[in-house]
Amino acid sequence: MDPMIAEFLNRFILVLTNGFIWALIVALVALGLSLIFGLMEIVNIAHGDLYMWGAVLAWYGVTLTGNFWVGVILAMAVMGGVGIVLERGALRPVEGIPAYTVVVTIGIGYILQQVALATFGGSPQKMPDPFPIVIEFLGVRYPGYRVFVAGVSTLALLGLWVFLFKTSIGLWIRASMQDREMANAMGVSVSKVYAVTFALGAMLAALGGALASPIVQVFYLMGYDLLVLAFIIVIVGGLGSLKGTLVAALIVCPLESVMTLIVTPTEARVISFLFMAAVLLVKPKGLFGA
């Protein structure tokens, strides 16, 4: 085989693999965003900052203890609690008023950024690789941590499916998403379901940030880029559709990753927007929108 062709194929395999692994991380964040919108009809502009704080808390956990799992658990636990406080204290008074919820979540995001800036600092930080091993496959050397991330993300997605479809709380969440008034009439405490759902969405965002922290630079504004990508995925999959969100993540992220072989990252993001527009022209409610 021609050396140039072999080199291109190796790069293509590497970039495509990166795209699928990044898709699993982004799917965690986007599923949290989709859950919150699907149940509460809140366009959570602060969701990217919940992801950012997941990475920041994971960095603190690893820096203080040297244990990656401590960082992950710390990020999820703290952001789950923050999610409940935000839903009860800031969003509960304006639930059902879309314009107000957008304004409130913009304010929440700004506050989260400023707190991170004041405590974490404005300089990007790089977390050391928790698993500094290299895996060789088809002549391609690949970081072992990314394979680990793929496994953890897959297990987390399976755990989310079990939680939503095999537990009573999951049943209450799905019932409230389909018809909140009927669920309330049947004895489901919709207000408590709202708090649990927002906390779950925050924990998923934090988990995504914690898993991404050794791959990307940890920075107080890192949530912006991820939020845009998450919204593209949620819109392509169909607002409120969890299955659609996962499928869209597995399409959009590898597509954008492969496009970086021939165009700049900014142009690759433009292609993602064009793909979203094409999907909406054919299916205005997204791939799996009801």
Question: How would you sum up this structure, described in words?
Answer:
The structure is a single chain. Helices cover 75% and strands 3% of the residues. By secondary structure, it is an all-alpha fold. Strands 1-2 form a two-stranded antiparallel ribbon. A hairpin with a 2-residue loop joins strand 1 and strand 2 (140-143). Helix 6 packs across helix 8. The longest helix has 38 residues, at 3-40. The N and C termini lie far apart (49 Å).
Question: How would you describe this structure in keywords?
Answer:
2 strands; two-stranded antiparallel sheet; 11 helices; mainly alpha; 290 residues
Query: What class, by secondary structure content?
Result: mainly alpha
| Termini gap | 49 Å
- Percentage of residues in strands: under 5%
Mean pLDDT: 89
Radius of gyration: 19 Å
Number of strands: 2
- The low-confidence runs, each spanning 5 or more residues with pLDDT under 50, are none
Question: Main β-sheet, in a few words?
Answer: 2 strands, antiparallel
- Overall body shape: globular
Note the topology.
Elements lengths: L2 H38 L6 H19 L2 H24 L6 H23 L13 E4 L2 E4 H23 L1 H11 L1 H6 L4 H23 L10 H15 L4 H18 L5 H18 L8
Antiparallel strand pairs: 1-2
Summarize it:
The protein is an all-alpha fold. Helices cover 75% and strands 3% of the residues. The longest helix is centred in the first third of the chain and has 38 residues, at 3-40.
